[in-house]
Specification:
The structure is a single chain. It is built from 18 helices and 24 strands. The chain is an alpha+beta fold and about 500 residues long. The chain folds into 2 domains: about 250 residues, Aminohydrolase, N-terminal nucleophile (Ntn) domain (Glutamine Phosphoribosylpyrophosphate, subunit 1, domain 1, 4-Layer Sandwich); about 220 residues, Rossmann fold (3-Layer(aba) Sandwich). The longest helix has 19 residues.
Length: about 500
């Protein structure tokens, strides 16, 4: 999972500060690396490196990022290494000079890489599928009907949209992308199923119009924009340097199948994605979870409901209200420790739990407490939190997950690990309960989860991607062999190896 932003100002004002501010708002979507590329019409200016946004960009870097348009990215790795060489955005000089930032995961990246190298004669320098996406787009633009006028390449917008259409025919998986084309403008496009989010907004002031594309609506709010709308599945939106807007749906059969885990965990609660309020969806999750608790444990004897901060808080509040039980904050979160779910490597995640959460002893002493979290993936964090509650005197510790058991790899851009690392893999509910040390455990049902998000405003959604719960993948040819390769690349042993070695791209010719 990553966060992207693209900004174009119709005036000559610099956009670097707005991109930086937008990346700060998106920091929750990636803490491994950050990058900004701006364009002044002739030259690109770039700064990217590993680290948080506030650490990557100093004033000396910002001073060099000139130009009225640019893109930014925050990253956490789902594939490849966490090397700074794979920080985004990526750049290519042909055909127009282009830079791209991408959120998602291409499920046929290796096949595309082979085509790019052996058929399209393009060079790819990293293990990142985002660089593959950039080069596929560049290749299709080169094939478009561009004409030369006085030695310069002229970009026809129909050719641009035709190129995106051909990208859709070649690429499988999830992708929301923003692209800067030197001397022309900014292009945003989204995969035909709308798996990953992308939204467009505009701010009008005395200097003219400023267009903003971002992963979440909260960025637009923070930058003072009016929301124009979500980029539709399969749609491409091009804004030229004068602020002219052109858009086209570049796929014959688009449909909206967004990833439901955005609402469970990743997105900020103050965002609206595809017309669905993340906050309201989590309220609905909490209500349905409470009803399930009442059905399965009518005599629950819960003294207090407590969230696992922060993503479990909204659901926990509604669980408490529906149960008629006191809501209490039992853990204090250290906000200077990152989100443990997206930290690379199990040891790092485990070491961070105790640094991240500290219990308030008198809230637990002698009580039967229900802990509510957004989901349970590996279970190690849940186990440690349950033990923290017992260590400070909880009489009994119950645990509730606002999402169903995670059983399958997510192949569309969320780093859910090899299924052997899931605590729910091959275990019954009682066995999971014993493994995390709780007195009882309850999961949300998938039916209730989908209903919760739909009731929060998801009437446009034809189907959610729920593959991490069901193993049913909404796009691409997801074979057992592909899933095996994903697990091999994403298990903690592989991450440890990749983080300690500066890997180079290996090209295998399988002709």
């Amino acid at each position: 999972m990553c966060g992207i932003i693209g900004i174009l100002s119709s005036s000559d004002q610099q956009v670097r500060q707005q991109i930086y501010d937008g990346l700060l708002v998106l920091q929750h979507r990636g803490q491994d690396a950050a990058g900004i590329v701006t364009c002044d019409g002739e030259r690109f200016h770039q700064r990217k490196s590993n680290g948080l946004v506030g650490d990557v960009f100093r004033q000396s870097h910002m001073d060099l990022l000139g130009g009225p348009m640019g893109i930014g990215h925050v990253r956490y790795p789902t594939a490849g290494s966490s090397s700074s060489a794979e920080a985004q955005p990526f750049y290519t000089n042909s055909p127009y000079g282009m830079a791209l930032a991408h959120n998602g995961n291409l499920t046929n990246a290796q096949n595309l890489l082979h085509e790019l190298i052996h058929q399209d004669r393009r060079h790819v320098n990293t293990n990142s599928d985002s660089e593959v996406l950039l080069n596929v787009l560049a290749t299709e633009l080169e094939r478009a009907h561009a004409t030369r006028i006085e030695g310069e390449i002229y970009l026809d917008c129909d050719d641009l949209f035709d190129a995106v259409e051909r990208v859709h025919t070649r690429v499988e998986g999830s992708y929301a992308a923003v692209t800067v084309l030197s001397g022309y403008g900014i292009l945003a496009f989204r995969d035909p199923l709308g798996i990953r989010p992308l939204i467009h907004g505009v701010r009008e002031d005395s200097n003219g119009s400023t267009h903003v594309f971002a992963s979440e609506s909260v960025v637009l709010t923070a930058l003072g924009c009016q929301i124009v709308g979500d980029v539709a599945p399969g749609e491409a939106v091009f804004i030229d340097e004068s602020g002219r807007i052109l858009r086209r749906v570049c796929h014959p059969e688009p449909r909206l199948n967004p990833c439901i885990f955005e609402h469970v965990y990743f997105a900020r609660p103050d965002s609206v994605i595809d017309g669905i309020s993340v906050y309201e969806s989590r309220i609905q999750m909490g209500e349905r979870l409470a009803r399930r608790i009442l059905a399965e444990h009518p005599n629950h004897e819960i003294d207090a409901v407590m969230p696992i901060p922060d993503s479990g808080r909204i659901a926990a509040m509604e669980v408490a209200r529906t149960l008629g039980v006191e809501y209490r904050e039992g853990f204090v979160k250290n906000r200077y420790v990152g989100r443990t779910f997206i930290m690379p490597g199990q040891k790092v995640r485990q070491d961070s739990v105790r640094k991240k959460l500290n219990p308030i002893p008198h809230e637990f002493a002698g009580k039967r407490v229900l802990l509510v979290d957004d989901s349970i993936v590996r279970g190690n964090t849940s186990r440690k939190i349950v033990q923290l509650a017992r260590d400070v005197g909880a009489k009994e510790v119950f645990f509730a997950s606002a999402a169903p058991p995670v059983l399958h790899p997510n192949v569309y851009g969320i780093d859910m690990p090899a299924k052997q690392e899931y605590i729910a893999h091959g275990r019954t509910i009682q066995e999971i309960t014993d493994a995390i040390g709780a007195d009882w455990l309850i999961y949300q049902t998938l039916e209730d989860l989908e209903a919760a998000v739909t009731d929060a405003g998801g009437s446009k959604v034809t189907k959610f991607d729920t593959s991490c719960f069901t193993g049913q993948y909404v796009c691409g040819t997801i074979t057992p062999e592909y899933l095996a390769s994903v697990e091999e690349a994403r298990n903690d042993g592989a991450k440890k190896a990749s983080s300690s070695t500066n890997q180079t791209l290996e090209i295998h010719n399988q002709e």
